Every structure is written in C-alpha cells, then in structure tokens.
C-alpha cells in the first residue's frame, strides 16, 4: 500500500486495513488513560542538580505503526505549544519504540531514490515534514522521538542535531567499544563507510519532533530497495553485524548475545546517554494501547 500525502493523515485511504493488535508490553495498561502530565505553573520543571523533567514513554519492545507514532507526536507538540503559551514552559518528552517495516520520505525526498514501482511498493510509504531524504524503519531498529522545548535548552538547530549524533556515538563507544563518527556535510552516525543511525527532525515554535533511528538488529535488506538518505556511495550497517564481525576490541562477550539482549542493552545505553547529553531526569509514563491507536 502506498500512502503518500502532504503532512496530514487525511491522505490515508478509507479502505486501509485495520491496524493489527499492538503487542502489550510492560508499559501498556489497558485500564489507564494517556499519561503525559501537563505541569501547572506551580510545578517546577527543574529538579535538584539543575536537570529538567522529561516524560518518558518507553515502548522499546513494541512495534508501533509509523502513522500512529507520527500522529501522537504532533498531538504532543500541539499540547506543549498551548502549555508554553499559557504557562511559559513545559516538560520535555521522549518516546522510544520500534516500527513495523515502513519507508518515510523527508522534505528533501525525491522518488528517484526509490528502486521500485510506487504502485507496487514492498511496504507503506509516508511523506513527512521531517528533514532529510528517504529512509527505512523496521523491527530491530530503535527509534527515539525527543519532543523538547529548545527554548529551555539551546535555540540552535545545529547544536541539537550534533547532540543527537553525539548520543549515538557515546552509546557505540561506551557499550560496544565501537568507534563511530560523523561525516562532514552529512547527517547521521557512521562506522567507516556504513551508516548506523539516521537523524531527521522537525521544529515547531522551537519544539522538536521526529528524531533518530539506530540500526541494532535490523534486517538491512529493505535498504537495498532505496538509496538511503540519497547517498549513493555509502552503505548501511547495524550494531549486530559489527559485533558479529568483531568490531569493538575488548568486547568478545557481546558476540554471544541474542537479538533481544542487544536491543535491551542498546536501549538502556541510549536512555542514559540522552539523559546526560540533555541534562534530563526521566519521569516514566504509560499509555494504553487503545488510546494510542486513537491517535491514528
């Protein structure tokens, strides 16, 4: 199915199949409403040590359909804009999850970077308002969606992008002893000639959404049907492949980890490094699967 529109969900055909049941993990409760709190003007957004509060929706074991997560982000952004207008500030929010297989196109995307007939696409396709070119999301890839008020951090998009990249670089170094870097003129995180993490953001009234995607145990074959990020002379890689190849000296213990364990330790490290980089303290939140799907 092809779902190409201009930044809205009204482009989804009415004949689209119902969304499959979302597996319920430890962060889902069917009997509780959506819980991302809106602090009143009497609530401090900074705790001891100067760290801001960040509402964390940890769905890293779940495969949330892209259109559901996209709509959810935009709803949170609208709420934060209204809260800032009324109260002057808001908590930050971080969502971490996986997606079922999907291709997404950024504002700079062209169909020339698709290697298939769009009338017979292997997976759903969405044109979004994030920056960047075409990319793939799928199981085994951890996706982080920070929705933060840059007015309370640093009103500098270059700084924000570089900080997101630095989070991934620190994760690869501290957890896997893999030395990664950025490439001048390109966005994302690289190990040699392979891109492990893609970054694409949107900012509305200095509130961020969209974010980064890190290939952990991802099946990389769907990337062969596109020119990822419009870059023709480089490849895509994953943590799993690099670990199996022995990249990362001194971490032979990692070679025997299964996919679930690799996802778990990567997820834990991403949360730790993101918290350190942006000086945030997490407030764990939950959402019911029924309310999540209402956001489609």
Structure description:
With 296 residues, this protein is an alpha/beta fold. It has a single domain (52-293), classed as 2-Layer Sandwich (BirA Bifunctional Protein, domain 2). Helices cover 25% and strands 23% of the residues. The protein contains five helices and eleven strands. The protein has helices spanning 66-87, 157-176, 239-244, 259-278, 289-293, and strands at 52-63, 92-98, 102-105, 125-127, 135-137, 141-147, 189-191, 194-204, 207-215, 235-236, 280-285. Strands 1, 2, 6, 7, 8, 9, 10 and 11 form an eight-stranded mixed β-sheet that branches. The protein has a three-stranded mixed β-sheet with strand order 4-3-5, with no helix packed on it. α2 (157-176) crosses α4. The chain is globular, with a radius of gyration of 19 Å. Mean pLDDT is 84; it is low at 1-43. Keywords: Acyltransferase, Transferase. This is lipoyl(octanoyl) transferase.
């Amino acid at each position: 199915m092809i779902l190409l529109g201009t930044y809205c969900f009204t482009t989804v055909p009415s004949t689209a199949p119902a969304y499959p049941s979302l597996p319920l993990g430890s962060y889902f409760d069917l009997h509780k409403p959506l819980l991302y709190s809106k602090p009143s003007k009497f609530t401090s957004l900074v705790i001891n040590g100067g760290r801001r509060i960040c509402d964390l929706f940890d769905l890293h074991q779940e495969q949330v359909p892209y259109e559901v997560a996209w709509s959810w982000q935009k709803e949170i952004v609208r709420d934060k804009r209204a809260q800032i207008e009324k109260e002057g500030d808001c908590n930050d929010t971080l969502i971490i999850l996986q997606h079922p297989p999907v291709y997404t196109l950024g504002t700079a995307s062209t169909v020339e970077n698709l290697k298939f007939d769009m009338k017979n696409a292997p997976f759903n396709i969405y044109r979004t308002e994030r920056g960047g070119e075409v990319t793939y999301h799928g199981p085994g890839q951890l996706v982080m969606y920070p929705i933060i008020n840059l007015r309370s951090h640093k009103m500098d998009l270059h700084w924000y992008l570089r900080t997101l990249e630095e989070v991934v670089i620190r994760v690869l170094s501290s957890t896997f002893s893999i030395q990664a870097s950025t490439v001048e003129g390109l966005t994302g995180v690289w190990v040699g000639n392979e891109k492990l993490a893609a970054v694409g953001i949107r900012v509305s009234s200095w509130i961020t959404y969209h974010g980064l995607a890190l290939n952990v145990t991802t099946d990389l074959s769907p990337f062969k049907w596109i020119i990822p990020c419009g870059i023709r002379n480089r490849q895509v890689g994953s943590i799993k492949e690099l670990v199996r190849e022995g990249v990362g000296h001194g971490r032979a213990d990692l070679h025997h980890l299964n996919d679930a364990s690799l996802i778990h330790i990567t997820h834990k490290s991403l949360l730790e490094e993101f918290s350190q980089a942006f000086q945030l303290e997490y407030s764990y939140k939950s959402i019911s699967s029924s309310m999540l799907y209402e956001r489609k």
